[in-house]
């Protein structure tokens, strides 16, 4: 498991091949397919997050795509869409967006296409 500390600021795409704990601000997509992404209470992620599981304790703005579950914990704030077969919204969490559980395959295809586009630049 890797941890991106509070003192970091990332602008651009982030790819990981292991579970990831984000404590910093990220402006760009996070690609962690087949692994877990945890957005800590101190973190703010602006962009699409693709992972097996996504748990948000902090703030997220963008699309959260998970092949298993997205969980928004108490005091977290998520603005955007959630695409996952399971979506857990805890009391005290703020969610401003939409949940699209049946659109997982389409969302993954779009995310992979966008990743290929970035790779070709």
Q: How large is the share of residues in beta strands?
A: over 45%
Number of domains: 1
Shape: globular
User: How many beta-strand runs?
Assistant: 13
Coarse structural class: mainly beta
Map the helices and strands.
Layout: E1 2-4, E2 9-11, E3 14-15, E4 20-22, E5 25-27, E6 30-39, E7 44-46, E8 49-56, E9 59-61, E10 64-72, E11 77-83, E12 86-89, E13 94-99, H1 104-119
Parallel strand pairs: 1-4, 2-5, 3-6, 4-6, 5-7, 6-8, 7-9, 8-10, 9-11, 10-11, 10-12, 11-13
Main traits of this protein?
13% helix, 1 helix, mainly beta, 121 residues, 13-stranded parallel β-sheet
What would your notes on this structure say?
The structure is a single chain. The protein is mainly beta and 121 residues long. Strands 1, 2, 3, 4, 5, 6, 7, 8, 9, 10, 11, 12 and 13 form a 13-stranded parallel sheet that branches. The N and C termini lie far apart (29 Å). The longest helix is centred in the last third of the chain and has 16 residues, at 104-119. The protein is globular and about 40 Å long. The protein has one domain. Helix content is 13%, strand content 53%.
């Amino acid at each position: 498991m890797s941890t991106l500390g509070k003192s970091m600021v990332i602008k651009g795409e982030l790819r990981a091949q292991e579970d990831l704990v984000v404590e910093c601000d990220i402006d760009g997509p996070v690609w962690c397919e087949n692994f877990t992404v945890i957005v800590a209470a101190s973190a703010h992620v602006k962009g699409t997050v693709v992972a097996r599981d996504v748990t948000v304790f902090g703030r997220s703005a963008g699309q959260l795509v998970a092949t298993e579950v997205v969980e928004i914990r108490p005091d977290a704030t998520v603005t955007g869409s959630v695409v996952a077969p399971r979506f857990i919204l805890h009391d005290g969490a703020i969610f401003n967006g939409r949940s699209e559980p049946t659109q997982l395959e389409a969302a993954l295809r779009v995310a992979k296409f966008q990743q290929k586009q970035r790779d070709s630049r």
